[in-house]
Amino acid sequence: MKNFFTSESVTSGHPDKVCDVISDSVLDAILEQDPSARVACECSVTTDFLLVMGEITTSAKIDVESVARNAIREIGYTDKNTGFCADDVKVLIKLNKQSADIALGVDNSVEAKAGGDKYDLIGAGDQGIMFGYATNETEEFMPLPIMLAHKMCARLEEVRKNGEISYLRTDGKGQVTVEYFNGKPLRVEAVVLSSQHDDTVTTERLRKDLRELVIDKVIPQEYIDEKTKFFINPTGRFEIGGPNGDSGLTGRKIIVDTYGGKCPHGGGAFSGKDPTKVDRSATYMARYVCKNIVASGLADECQIQVAYAIGVAKPVSIMVNTFGTGKLSDDKIADIIVKEFDLRPLAIIEKLGLNKPVYKQTASYGHFGKNQLAWEKTDKVMDLKKYF
């Protein structure tokens, strides 16, 4: 059976990603001084304006405005003529402390009140459902469409920053459609790539350079054929971009952040949140579980759903779906997960080292599929193989 699946990605200069980068830069700066800080930092940007808002309880002393301006500068917004520049953007900061009502459940879980162990000390920071996913169709154990889209956009940023394509500006986005046959990736059906640029370049030159220096560098040639369609800056011109062209918000690219739509999303965004927020930490743990399940050979594809109640350490439910690829039944794999993985918030934080400043690197090009991240390790494979 033949079907198509499409995923998109965006560069770090996309307005929404600018907000994600700033939020996680603030989080990292705080965790560097105060690993137990409670942080929920969100941003909004538009022409010449940045709002940093949220709830933060910490002993850390940081200059939030300087952190934000440095993040904007690193992305590449340094030209005062483009409507958004690190040096002269107006910055408004509206930060309060974490709600005392939320802190009640996080600091003293239901289980801790009953005399549980140390991992019962912290309850979930909110109710919610989180999903994890892994597939063996790529070496990253990620869906092929989102990995190709991420690599294409990352390459677009690389050629801008290293000067290989000198006329590019900071904003950009890409999209890849993959044709599957009997569940296996067969070929690339369509590639869409749009990049902001200055007013000196012709559309013909831009399309030629982006095809040769970006697309052809990251899309494996074995997936390209005479039927593959390419749409490069399809409107022709893209001179106005970034926050000057569209407003941005933290957490608005949650599908780009995860699996490109191949897996459901529970709704909670990641960037700017400390790891007591299970929106983030439990989603990372769910990815870790699924990747190890697939890497061990227990399934070719694995999706799990984990649900929490605010103030309660243990999940209220765990659901497994291996889409018929499991070597054991889904309910048996769920039992294995309960035995082998501790999904309580404090256990997750300790296992994955989430109280450290590791988050800025996740803000662009996905939170999954990067081998340097702790939740991408496959160190539970041997423990899982014993269940065969």
The helix content is 25-40%
Provide the low-confidence segments as ranges: none
Beta content: 15-25%
Mean pLDDT: 95
Radius of gyration: 22 Å
Throw out a few tags for this protein.
flat; 23% strand
Q: Would you kindly provide a brief summary of this structure?
A:
With 388 residues, this protein is of the alpha+beta class. The chain contains eleven helices and eleven strands.
Explained architecture:
The protein is of the alpha+beta class and 388 residues long. Helix content is 32%, strand content 23%. It is built from eleven helices and eleven strands. It has helices at residues 15-33, 64-75, 100-107, 110-113, 144-161, 203-218, 254-257, 278-296, 330-340, 345-352, 381-385; strands at residues 2-10, 38-46, 49-57, 90-96, 128-135, 168-181, 184-197, 229-232, 248-249, 301-308, 317-321. Strands 1-6-7-8 form a four-stranded mixed beta sheet. A four-stranded mixed beta sheet has the order 4-3-2-9, with helices on one face. A three-stranded antiparallel beta sheet has the order 5-10-11. Helix 6 links the parallel strand 7 (184-197) and strand 8 (229-232). Helix 1 crosses helix 2, helix 5 crosses helix 6 (203-218) and helix 8 packs across helix 10 (345-352). It is flat, with a radius of gyration of 22 Å. The two termini are 30 Å apart.
Secondary-structure map with pairings?
Layout: E1 2-10, H1 15-33, E2 38-46, E3 49-57, H2 64-75, E4 90-96, H3 100-107, H4 110-113, E5 128-135, H5 144-161, E6 168-181, E7 184-197, H6 203-218, E8 229-232, E9 248-249, H7 254-257, H8 278-296, E10 301-308, E11 317-321, H9 330-340, H10 345-352, H11 381-385
Parallel strand pairs: 3-4, 7-8
Antiparallel strand pairs: 1-6, 2-3, 2-9, 5-10, 6-7, 10-11
Helix pairs in contact: 1-2, 5-6, 8-10
